[in-house]
Amino acid sequence: MKELWIDLQAKSKTALYEQLYAAIRRNITDGKLSPGEKLPSTRFMAKNLGVSRSTVALAYDQLTAEGYLAPRQGSGYYVCDISELYQLSREHAGTEKQRKGEQENRKEEAASPACEIRFSPYEIDCRKFPYAAWYRVNKELMPREDSELLLSGESKGMEKLRSQISRYLYRARGVECRPEQIIVGAGNEYLLMLLAQILGTGKSVLMEEYTYVQAYATFRNMGCHMLAAHTDSDGICMEDVHMSGADIVYVMPAHQFPLGIVMPLKRRLELLKWAAASGERYIVEDDHDSEFRYKGKPIPALWGNDRAGHVVYLGTFSKSITPSLRISYMVLPERLLERYEKNCGFYACTVSRFGQELLYRFLEEGHFERHLNRMRNHYKQKQETLIALLKRENWVQSVSGDNAGLHVLVEVKTAYSEEELCRRAAGSGVEIHGLAEYCIGNPPKKAYPSVLLGYGNLNEAEMRRGLEILRRLIAGGGTFGK
Amino acid sequence: MKELWIDLQAKSKTALYEQLYAAIRRNITDGKLSPGEKLPSTRFMAKNLGVSRSTVALAYDQLTAEGYLAPRQGSGYYVCDISELYQLSREHAGTEKQRKGEQENRKEEAASPACEIRFSPYEIDCRKFPYAAWYRVNKELMPREDSELLLSGESKGMEKLRSQISRYLYRARGVECRPEQIIVGAGNEYLLMLLAQILGTGKSVLMEEYTYVQAYATFRNMGCHMLAAHTDSDGICMEDVHMSGADIVYVMPAHQFPLGIVMPLKRRLELLKWAAASGERYIVEDDHDSEFRYKGKPIPALWGNDRAGHVVYLGTFSKSITPSLRISYMVLPERLLERYEKNCGFYACTVSRFGQELLYRFLEEGHFERHLNRMRNHYKQKQETLIALLKRENWVQSVSGDNAGLHVLVEVKTAYSEEELCRRAAGSGVEIHGLAEYCIGNPPKKAYPSVLLGYGNLNEAEMRRGLEILRRLIAGGGTFGK
Questions:
Q1: A46-64: burial string, b at 16+ Cβ within 10 Å, e else
Q2: pLDDT at residue B257 greater than cutoff 50
Q3: CATH 1.10.10.10 residue window(s) in chain B
């Protein structure tokens, strides 16, 4: 028997067959065993090493399965040719290492300390999360043997959850739909990916020039042709809608992000009329923020005025519960439902069954609407506080978009550019977002730099401190317009 | 004042302003108030109805926001023209109702009773789910005030979760990667949607002629050009790989679904060599089922042999924990990471923060690997039981694909066609899947109808009952080959 470097440790935690497997493998990769060479029989090897034959057989089987050995009928095991493997490693090891280094450098550059005061339009008030109710519902959800929760369930999401959502939509948003029309999914972007697949390739999508850029990027990634429309005080310009030749118009009638415009009925009807003029035109109504309307009761969704079946409604629990929940839903008009079944019905629902069950109970037991009512008042007070504070600031030219949502839009009298202002604010620990971040088109030049001030997760003291920092910063930048 | 049908109920639960809003709205939609008509002043209306002015102002504001009224500076409120809305309703109400009816009929047709005995290749053993550990981890996860769980977190998933996954991959699958290369997402299909976006449009994807059809449909939906390759006993035919001109080859080397082939090292190296020959060729290694290998230790992933960075690795917790968890992950080679950041870095992770934290703790506390080891033995026993039972059946020609996974492939001596056999079995309460269900190409004609028998969620008694039903059914169908 050829001398092999095989040293088995009886007391090791690693099984003997694994040790043997590793040893033979090493002998092959090191070239001590050459391609075509015959290995000792299992009987011989076992006797020689003082182990059982089955131990050797197991090791040989594993090596065979991985392609290091090949058995020949009635003749034994032979070493395979694995030279190509090591050729590949040597050729590319250098480049790979270099690439890794570059990657890590980039990562370090990107890392910057998070701001202490975040006027973020995306954050909710974590201090007011209904921990107790959530905790209780979650605890009840986990009986020791509920195998129901282990099954994949329906592609659109659980029927009982969709029923709850449809009831909520009817009550709160004037959206009348059957649970069958609702698709539950892990976030708006995922649902837009589905929608793009339902609508088919080569579609053109028109969005307002300031918009929700994640939706823009999603459609673009899905191969849609992207178009930007101007906005006036009532929202998307109808002239652009008609001129664009778009197949899909994406709007946020309840509270346009980031401008905060509430689309009046007239414009809504014009949009619906545009869509109804052709069988293949659709309006995507992103109804985010609609839950938090502070003046009067919520404005019904555009969907409610659509009798021709051209509106796709998008809703989310990101702001009404928490963004980290990752549950959104899309309501499809009947004419798209069939295409959903055909093109996308095979996808499993992207929300875990646990998450669906938790949300279902949270809705069903009334926690959701109680939480919403509480938060509506709470955010309203926050908004009033922020606006009162902003009115005292000499650098504030105007405040708008205050009908709804968790942010306002502020025109700033500053000599800094929008970008410079945001960068400097971040440097002083204050996160603010310039309007330009949300721009996808070529809007007319603005008279003032504009920033979004989100207030979802800030208390009054934090607002005061944040505004004070901004005040000093802006004062240090020189006089506006000079 | 023009007479309006306004009847306010002081004792109603509905707020007075809401009642007033609804009443005026009704007057407008009924045509009792015409476009252009001026409404009484808030003062006059308030006095007339015996309510406060602010109640009337609230109602007018709401009607204005919804576009039913338009204020004119210093002059009062005027009724808007909403005629278009009702025109739209009338035109389309008929078609919509008709469509709804059709939809419901289709739904009824599709509904069929679920089978009692499911030889499903997708199901796990729900009876062996680690309920106790899962329950405990979940309970600890929900402290009353952990706002950390409410933040969106990283696009790729939580760093600590990805670290755990990378450690597991190294130990169990020989996959050496940095946590930065791992993208956590809600299921394989979602991750493939991302991958298609990363790779860009117009790619051609080659898959084996029998394959995981959901992946096929996902790539197709994403606009990829789909190609099918023949398979031999070692897996995908290299001749087809070279001839196809494909950009991407999708394989399952650990346990090909549905055929159960384990790809030997030689074929793996040939594939890697093909990929390395061009900068833009990639292999998608779907490593599902790899955890459940019953002969020797698991075979390392193809990824481990790739030094040129051309393999995208796909893993899932669907079988190792439960499909309803909806957590998968994709490991990207360095060269695709940059493109991920650029094209897809803006997507929020599709797995909820709660789900991520739960899985993290389940991995970190060792529950996962303990569960895996237990289940590996458990499923191995199940497989042995099923194969022993199958050996006694006279209608079984052969059993294959038994190296790993949760199903075997059975050639059946029956006069029925594959489709007919599955249909009749379902009619008798037994779910089986014909090989043709997984076919995307034009494979050579088979000698025998073949079915997949999954055993994940069946105990011995169920297997016996299921096989007995199949035996009777096949006997009733006449003799094979006559």
A1: beebebeeebbbbbbbbbb
A2: yes
A3: 16-82
> Rounded CA gap, A303 and A309, in Å?
9
pLDDT in the model for residue A92: 42
What pLDDT sits at residue A72? 84
Closest by CA position to A39, among listed A73, A8, A75: A75
Nearest by CB: A308 against B88, B213, B350? B88
How close B225 gets to chain A, by Cα (Å)? 13
Query: Tell me, what's the pLDDT at A267?
Result: 94
The whole-angstrom separation of Cα A84 and Cα B272 is 9
Mean pLDDT of B410-414: 96
Residues 144-173 of B with CB under 8 A from A: 144-145, 147, 149-153
Sign of CA dihedral B162, B168, B170, B175: negative
Whether B165 contacts B314, CB under 8 Å: no
Q: In what order do the strands lie in the sheet with B433-434?
A: B396-400, B407-412, B450-454, B433-434
Share of chain B above pLDDT 70, in %: 90
Give CATH 3.90.1150.10 domain extents, chain B: 117-130+370-477
CB B211 within 8 A of CB B250: yes
Over 70: is that where the pLDDT of B97 sits?
no
- Pairs of CB atoms within 8 A across A/B: 290
pLDDT, one tens digit per residue, over A74-119 is 788 888 877 655 444 434 444 444 444 444 444 433 334 578 999 9
B16-82 is classed in which CATH architecture? Orthogonal Bundle (1.10)
The pair of three-digit structure tokens given for residue B212, joined into one six-digit string: 């995981």
User: Residue A303 burial by CB count (10 A; 0-12/13-18/19+): exposed, middle or buried?
Assistant: buried
The complex's ipTM works out to 0.81
The arrangement of secondary structure in A138-368, i.e. its CATH architecture, is 3-Layer(aba) Sandwich (3.40)
Question: Please, what CATH class does the domain formed by A117-130+370-477 belong to?
Answer: alpha beta
Angle at B338 between CA B334 and CA B341, to 5 degrees: 130
Tell me whether the omega of the peptide bond preceding residue A258 falls within 30 degrees of 0, making it cis: yes
Contact (Cβ atoms closer than 8 angstroms) between residue B210 and residue B435 = yes
Using the beta-carbon criterion (under 8 Å), do B307 and A89 form an inter-chain contact? yes
| Residue B111 near chain A (CB below 8 Å) | no
B-chain residues near A126 (CB < 8 A): 147, 150-151
What is the least distance, in Å, from the CA of B131 to any CA of chain A? 5
- Comparing CA positions, the residue from A86, A62, A40, A307 lying closest to residue B298 is A62
pLDDT digits (tens, 9 = 90+) for A381-396: 999 999 999 999 999 9
pTM reported for the whole predicted model? 0.81
Buried-state track A353-367, b at ≥16 Cβ within 10 A, e below 16: bbbbbbbbbbbeeeb
